[in-house]
Design a protein that fits this description.
The structure holds three protein chains of three kinds. By secondary structure, chain A is of the alpha+beta class. Chain A is 48% helix and 13% strand. Chain A is globular and about 70 Å long. Chain B has a single domain (3-150), classed as NADH:ubiquinone oxidoreductase Nqo5 subunit (Beta Polymerase, domain 2, 2-Layer Sandwich), CATH 3.30.460. Chain B has helices spanning 3-12, 38-48, 104-114, 151-157, and strands spanning 18-24, 27-33, 53-61, 66-74, 79-87, 93-95, 118-120. A five-stranded mixed sheet of chain B has the order 1-2-5-4-3. Chain B has a two-stranded parallel ribbon with strand order 6-7. Classes of the chains: A alpha+beta, B alpha/beta, C alpha/beta. At the A-C interface, helix 1, helix 2, helix 4, helix 5 and helix 6 of A face helix 3 and helix 4 of C. The complex binds iron/sulfur cluster. Iron/sulfur cluster binds next to helix 3 and helix 5 of chain C.
Chain lengths: 381, 158, 205
């Protein structure tokens, strides 16, 4: 009887956030796992029912803190459908650009943290250095490094500043050769390959059955990418390829993310060209006043009664850096959403943990969980 | 895929308990069904209609009733389908979908804990996000947010 | 020793050119790139060491404890617990990245609470994690300090009204330094750490 349960978390260097992986082991072999979530459950869906439509955007940044602007994009699309508002064309392109920059930043953050888990220090330093350049770009047009509050129902808050596209291209020029460097550090290292090959295998049909999406699914050979399959925003107007691998293991997920970064750069160059040649408004006209900040409470009750609120339900889905994210916004009239429900990709990817961890060794947990790219904020919400 | 396709395919497969099939922006259709027919309907949607990927399960408290909705995705048709069922307000319960789509497991645990919908025959219906023994269902309309000054009240909650 | 003033002053420097392995690093906005630390440690480090050592010799002769040395060594090598709670943890990580490099202040995150003397609460504390946080705090050896990083740790932040969130970590453990911001920039975190050091110098370990 050498079986036992051990807790990895909530404070453990492997977890990258606040969750607990309970593992049943026999010697070094994993027999069973039970992820314990909820340590970061902040009630975002409940608080949203108490906020104005535009105020919920603040919470979205904090939901997934490595991909804040992608979640803003997810939410505003659903809210716009629920409210019957259309964004302006230019704002749609800016949103798409933001999402791609966020994908770059999120994947670089993943790279930094994942490779550090394997014991390599320099990728962390290189990764954080390059990620900061993207955050500087974000800062130059949204004002924030991590929490942007940039998108609005009906558009975005402000246009990008003058000279932005030039600076953005400079950053992209700097980043592209870095990917080669990253690859040399990892794929060129025999130790990295031996540590990661054939680990955490989850085949495509299992992924579909278990709801696993994103780079994990694409590393198993599937080509599902909502940007291509169900184009939202202006993704139908840019050219890019869906990155896939077929090994379905940790190395495959690494390769998919690396290729996705290259494709993001490719998309971004097209978007920046478009932005240069198409000036225009970034916020829709004639937005209802109650969408904005709270107004003075004088005569509030009477004022409320007089108004005509639209009703509706909005559903949106985006390919977030971690996978497929969906939002369901119910608008029952009034200034607050009646119900907001999110689908977090990491939530589903983690729920399948049993299937890609059991049978491996305890020392394999950090690379495997690293390759899942856990962001607890969006799992617990 | 449009609502008509969904209707013909469901009829061809002999799907029970369909109440209505209506268009819905962004998905193929919204299918309202009778919760007692869930066990028979889910495999038909998965196999005959070809929706093997379950994206999410969510619950809504409409005060006079509960609603549970399922969002499913089809790879060949490249579209979503929304299934929804109205549940009784007194004792909302429905058959689990996790026998058909294993990914429903955690989504249903969450919907049970936050909205208070009971999923019959669920393999593992225990708390996911809140601590064990938490008595409340925060996403019900009757649950009000506290001011942080009510610290004592909150401590009693947990 | 001079009285501890504000430890960090941000000086807007012209965009500096940093030469990386692949050419020049494009610094995007000059105002955010670098911060000059007014009271740079190395200037004070040696005189303080001398002072502490002479006090040590004196106190040993009197048969007293070695407090000053302890204080000097402890505050110059604060080891925070490597623990990411929420969004602020990302900025916490950025502070240890290449641009801000918090390790130059002797701040090295450790993964075991037994090796730490500083708990940086970098995110939202929920009731579910509260007793785990207290357990970690109690495992840390004395003397120990707590920094509440960000609005959530300070007072609940945007999630103040949520049913599952502790409105401020000071309801659970004693806090020495609060850092405002949602999230605080890495400079603010460094400022908080330097303020904590000033506090330790003043109060004693
Ligand atoms: S203070 Fe803001 S950024 Fe920090 S954990 Fe709280 S919500 Fe996140």
């Amino acid at each position: 009887m050498s079986e036992m349960w051990i807790n990895m978390g909530p404070q453990h260097p492997m977890t990258h956030g606040l969750w607990n992986l309970r593992v049943r082991i026999d010697g070094e072999r994993i027999l069973d796992v039970d992820p314990e979530m909820g340590y970061l459950h902040r009630g975002i869906e409940k608080i949203s029912e108490d906020r104005h439509y535009n105020e919920v955007i603040t919470l979205m940044d904090r939901t997934c803190y490595v991909a804040g602007i992608a979640w803003e994009h997810l939410y505003v699309q659903a809210a716009e459908k629920a409210l019957g508002i259309a964004p302006t064309e230019r704002s749609d392109w800016i949103r798409m650009m933001s999402e791609e920059f966020q994908r770059l930043a999120s994947h670089i953050m993943w790279y930094a943290a994942f490779v550090q888990d394997l014991g390599l220090m320099s990728p962390f330093l290189y990764g954080m250095r390059d990620r900061d350049l993207i955050l500087d770009l974000f800062q130059s047009y949204t004002g924030g490094r991590l929490t942007y509050e940039y998108m609005r129902v009906g558009g975005v808050r402000n246009d990008v500043p003058e000279g932005f596209t030039h600076r953005a291209r400079e950053v992209l020029d700097w980043l592209e050769p870095r990917f080669v460097e990253y690859d040399r550090l990892c794929m060129g290292s025999d130790i990295f390959r031996r540590r990661c090959d054939d680990l955490g295998v989850l085949k495509a049909n299992d992924c579909v059955r278990l709801g696993v999406t994103g780079p994990m699914l694409r590393s198993a050979g599937s080509k599902r990418d909502l940007r291509k399959d169900r184009p939202y925003s202006r993704y139908s107007q840019v050219e890019f390829d869906v990155a896939t691998a077929d090994s379905a293991d940790v190395t495959g997920r690494y390769l998919v993310r690396m290729e996705e970064m290259r494709q993001s750069v490719r998309i971004l160059r097209q978007v920046l060209d478009w932005l240069d040649s198409h000036p225009g408004p970034v916020l829709a006209d004639h937005l209802p006043r109650w969408l904005g900040a709270p107004y003075a409470p004088i005569g509030r009750e009477a004022y409320l009664l007089k108004r005509n609120y639209p009703k509706g339900v909005g559903l949106s889905a985006i390919e977030e850096p971690h996978g497929e994210a969906c939002a369901y916004v119910v608008n029952e009239g009034g200034e607050h959403p009646y119900r907001v429900k999110f689908r977090s990709p990491v939530f589903a990817n983690l729920s399948a943990a049993h299937h890609y961890l059991v049978g491996y060794h305890v020392a394999d947990i950090p690379p495997i969980m690293g390759s899942v790219d856990v962001c607890v904020g969006e799992v617990d919400r | 895929m449009n609502p008509e396709d969904v209707r013909t395919k469901l009829a061809a497969a002999g799907a029970p308990g369909i109440i209505s099939i209506e268009p819905f922006e962004g998905v193929a259709a919204r299918v309202k069904f009778d919760p007692t027919a869930a066990t028979a309907l889910f495999p038909i949607v998965r196999d005959a209609l070809g929706f093997p990927h379950l994206s999410m399960v969510g619950g809504i408290d409409w005060v006079e009733r509960y609603e549970v909705f399922y969002l499913v995705w089809s790879d060949p048709a490249k579209t979503y389908l929304l299934l929804s069922a109205d549940l009784d307000a007194k004792a909302p319960h429905i058959e689990t979908a996790s026998a058909c789509w294993p990914s429903a497991n955690w989504h249903e645990r969450e919907a049970w804990e936050l909205v208070g919908i009971q999923f019959d025959h669920h393999p593992d219906l225990r708390h996911l996000l809140m601590p064990d023994g938490y008595q409340f269902h925060p996403l019900q309309r009757a649950f009000k947010l506290h001011e942080p000054e009510d610290l004592e009240v909150k401590v009693r909650h947990v | 020793m001079s009285t501890p003033g504000p430890a960090v002053a941000s000086v807007a420097k012209p965009a500096a050119a940093v030469v990386g392995p692949g050419g020049e690093l494009p610094i995007v906005s000059s105002d955010v790139s670098f911060v000059e630390i007014e009271t740079l440690r190395s200037r004070e480090f040696i005189p303080e060491a001398k002072e502490a050592l002479s006090a040590l010799v004196k106190e040993q002769a009197e048969g007293k404890l070695i407090r000053p040395v302890f204080n000097w060594a402890g505050r110059n090598s604060l080891f925070p617990l490597h623990w990411g709670l929420a969004c602020c943890a990302i900025e916490f990580a950025a502070a240890f990245g290449a641009r801000w490099d918090a390790e130059r202040f002797g701040v090295v995150p450790r993964s075991s609470p037994r090796q730490c003397d500083l708990l940086i609460v970098n995110g939202t504390v929920t009731w579910k994690v509260a007793h785990k946080l207290i357990a970690l705090y109690e495992q840390m050896p004395e003397p120990k300090w707590v920094i509440a990083m960000g609005n959530c740790a300070t007072g609940g932040g945007p999630f103040r009204t949520a049913y599952s969130v502790v409105p401020g970590v000071d309801k659970l453990v004693p806090v020495d330094v609060y850092i405002a911001g949602c999230p605080p920039r890495p400079e603010a975190l460094l400022d908080g750490i330097l303020r904590l050091e000033a506090l330790i110098r003043e109060r004693g370990a």
